[in-house]
Design brief:
single chain; 781 residues; mainly beta; Immunoglobulin-like; Jelly Rolls; eight-stranded mixed beta sheet; six-stranded antiparallel beta sheet; elongated; disordered N terminus
Length: 781
Amino acid sequence: MFKKLQTVVCALLVLLLCFGLAACDNNTDPKPQTTEYTVTFDANGGTLTGNATIKVESGKTITAAPTAAKENCDFEAWYTLADGGDKIALDTYKVEKDVTLFAHYTPKSTGPVGPDDSFDPDSVDLAGYSVDPTTANLKTKTLINAKNERVGYRLEAENATITGTPSSENQQGTGYVEAVETASGGKSIGYLGTAGNTVKFSFESDTAGVAKIVLRATSNNTKMDMETCAMWVEDQKVSEKDFTVAFNGAPVKFEEATLRGAGKDKPMTWNLYWDPVSFGKLDVKKGLNEVVITVVAQTVPNMDCLDIITSRTVTAVADPTANPYKKDVDVKLVVGGYEGGPAIEKAILHFAENIPASAVKDANPFSVSLGARLGGSGDKVYLCDKDGVKLADSAASSAYVAIEYAVSYANWSFAGNLSPFTYNQTTAKNTWKDFSTANLSISNLKIGDATYTEFGGKVTVTKEVPCLKDWNLNGTFTDNIQWGTPAAARKIDLKYGAYEPAELKNDGGKNALIVWLHGGGEGGTDPSIAVLGNQVTGLSNDTVQKYFKSGSLKGAYVLAPQSPTQWMDIGDGKQASSPENSVYTESLFKLIKKYAEEVNTDVDLNRIYVGGCSNGGWMTLELLADHGEYFAAAYPVSACYDSKLLTSDMINKLKDIPIWFTHSKNDGTLPIAKNNGGWPATFGELLNQNTNEVYLKLLAAGATNVYFSLFENVTVGQTSYDGHWSWIYTFRDECKFVQKHTADTKLTDLKTDSKETVSLTSGGEAVTMWAWIAAQAKSAA
């Protein structure tokens, strides 16, 4: 009995000991911590049923995803990007971080899906179909007819595979894709004119069948009038003399097609129409199919997209060898001021990881496009800091890479597509390009063991304009006037920019004010256009400012008013050829007066100087005729004035005002010499008009403090600019030599090779225009 009891007690002790040990284990060993991540589901244009966000433990799979749906589409799968990205299998994907997944869809077939003999591609009107809007953001777009029936698919040219080198006409470097307005809403391929270049469209078909394959392209038949410099695009016939076509390796014969140009009545207008070039009905095989276009001549047109008219189900296929770099990149475009206007001089790329020095040592794997590729063969690429300053050669890596562009001027703008402005031929205005349309391309980027062949992330683009430092571009002025016959109330709103460095306001004295009036292309409601369009920032540089520094004074203020239209606007919003007055004259004067007397009380009212170019040169003379007593001196550039309005009364108002004129003999816009024609145009004897006439009449009326810098042409180094642009010499402080300036001066006395100069004192040193301007004052400064 005792042994049994002892056995029971021992057993109980063992059990208690075990439970006790277990209890001790539970008390001394806490549960391991678990990390939860947030998974966000984006319907990507559709709708969700279920929770849009869920919590998932680290390392676990997703088990509670919502249902995504989209009208006229079938849900395909969840992806890491809204367009493209990696496909996610929820049952195997392990969550290791916060993540957003995007629903992708495939369009439902709304049209014929039967055998080929039930659908004839030739029955489809090539002008009678459009893209199903529910597929507009997909790489494979669905084409529908007026009855909303599916008739085929569209493949964008921007997603095609391109090989070769750009056309010799291309100053944009190695890029082909252009962000222009296209029929398909995507981008086009241009600059393909080098023989042997190829464009390959790849797609898969669910079954074998028949398809009509159609290329959408536009005319490149550019014409130019050598006398007027007008450019336009005419119709172009394209055939196998321009490019050849192969489908699945077999050559394809196609009929000659006519591509429309915008026509002479729409100058400087490219890519207006995207017309069909049919390759006919072709046998499509199940699986992969390829259309290869090979360039034969430089006349090859720009290409928009490939349309596949078929009852089969077609899907675009990406380049199977591509390895996209999928991390986001921030790009800052740095804009500088130059003789030809503003130019993009540098791109600063900010990556989410360090880029090794070896990646940019021997080649540039990056390119930025803004409408077309920026830069060219002269680009320099290097590791830099966040401000774009080059790092030492010993730097191993950096999260910042700079592309430094070689800024040079071509025929009408900067080479390499470096102008951040676009000129609208219809409105005759400059505007900023849309920086949100900029793209980043990557080619052969090597990081570690990976080589990336394209960019697959998101790019965010901003701009920086260092030369606008100390410029206030938010100035506004409103005036109410009576205008017209009969007179009616009219409101005038003017914007302006002003150079107002703090050091001037604190230098202990009042400072001079330089007023600049822009040309015809810089009107609008954005003063940065008026300031950058004619390199007005040159007036805020020490090249000019040095003449206004004396004693404690640190320089001069600069005021740049902006006309909503043109200064030569008589009230109808248009450019008048020879106006007697302007709807803006009095309001402009009030703006200048208010700025100098109320807005900026540090202005020396005895030293206000007014000038401008072209339209602004005309307005300068207008202000002098009406309010000449307010200004200490004037500097009209490339100015015009109608002979019949140069009355003796007006000349008498101007003759006692210090004025320094500037003009170039080869100015074809506001001519002062006979145009002999040719390309480039040559100019002969001087004409008694515009600046020539005003200058001679002032001298004849007794003006003694009036000068004229007459140039043969407009050149800076090896670069020749439009002859109208003589304001370049003004901003570069190169107006030194002047014309004869006595009362008996005649037209035949005016010579572009004159070496006569101006001195501030008798027998003194010769001075430039800006040194002379700075010395002028209504009374002792």
